[in-house]
Amino acid sequence: MTQPTVVFQMNRHFTITKDRLWHLLTDPHAREIWGAPSDEDTLTLEKADFREGGQERHRCGPAEEPQYSIDTHWYHIEAPQLACFSETVSAQGFRFAVSLVRYHLAETDSGTDLVVDVAVAALTDEDMRDDFQNGWTSGLDRLAKLIADKQLS
């Protein structure tokens, strides 16, 4: 029997404008730079179509063999403050999980607050919560570091 859906929320503050953060979160090429689930993994764009109803595909995993496919479907886009999309994670024709993600950005005096809501439906007997939560934590940590180092500001 598969695990139930799990939900978690991440809150971050970035010292850049809402428009700039929006671009870094939604541009598929920018996501290649910060979006892999760990420093050892790579995220490579195969297909990009950022619009409501648009679909994207990234390959993810170790650089020598990015075995996972991440299929993104964009449902709702209110630039530059709100986006809702799903991601399906699969490898070798087998789906592991589907997640529903919502970005909410709010400008502040010192930058932009980001709330990321994630609901994960595991399609295996494995508990996917830690994998997804660790992946999002790692990605957002790398995004914050790249911004702080002025490599993505």
TrEMBL record:
Domain of life assignment: Bacteria
Residues in Activator of Hsp90 ATPase homologue 1/2-like C-terminal domain copies: 18-147
Similarity annotation: Belongs to the AHA1 family.
Name assigned to this protein: SRPBCC domain-containing protein
UniProt organism field: Thalassococcus lentus
